[in-house]
Specification:
This protein is mainly alpha-helical. It folds into two domains: 64 residues, Arc Repressor Mutant, subunit A; 44 residues, no CATH class. The protein is built from six helices and two strands, in the order αααββααα. It has a two-stranded antiparallel ribbon with strand order 1-2. A hairpin with a 3-residue loop joins strand 1 and strand 2.
Length: 129
């Protein structure tokens, strides 16, 4: 059983959806520093995805510093180094831009987006407590 859930959506690359689900699990506290991450084989079997896609997920998470590979153990959730508020904010730049573009394509007002963000923020925070 995986420590994160993925609900696949058409039009978005599978590996991006899995990477996002893992990030969400780490942020929400479902996965903690030192937790073992599934192998490529297990990941591909559990999610029913191509092993190459599972390998791409693992490589992306290692490259982003979310996972580290330990000899004899495999991949584990990495300890994130303390970052400044500006550095943490910069990490969201691309995601915020995509959110704004999508919201505008859907014809949403800024107030609608802010309300949705607040609702998601509260829901995730409740999951962490």
């Amino acid at each position: 059983m995986l420590a994160f859930q993925v609900q696949f959506k058409p039009g978005v690359p599978i590996y991006e959806q899995v990477v996002f689900a893992v990030k969400k699990a780490v942020v929400s506290g479902q996965m903690r520093t030192g937790d073992k991450f599934p192998s490529v084989r297990i990941l591909s079997q559990e999610l029913r995805i191509n092993p190459n896609t599972a390998h791409k997920v693992l490589a992306a998470l290692v490259a982003e510093g979310l996972l580290e590979v330990r000899p004899g153990i495999g991949a584990v959730v990495a300890e994130s180094p303390p970052a400044t508020k500006i550095q943490r904010s910069e990490l969201l730049g691309g995601e915020i831009e995509r959110l704004v573009v999508e919201a505008q394509k859907l014809g949403l007002d800024l107030e609608d987006v802010e309300k949705a963000i607040q609702e998601h923020w509260k829901r995730i925070k409740r999951g962490r407590l």
